[in-house]
Amino acid sequence: NSGSGTCANIKATGVQIYAIQVNTGGDPTSTLLQNCASSSDKFFLLTSACQMVSTFSQIGTALSNLRIAQ
Description:
Elements: H1 2-12, E1 19-22, H2 31-36, E2 43-46, H3 51-69
């Protein structure tokens, strides 16, 4: 599938990919999004819209820590 190939090409350049699935309808977890994320801790499955703010905050904190560490 071209989506997973694109993700693999991006990850090969060293770019970190965060993937967020907003699943408020009970759909199955997206394997494509899980595999596209750079690691399992960079994939987020949200089951309600109200989780978005805390998830983006968590990602922002991780990115800030990354910049400080480098």
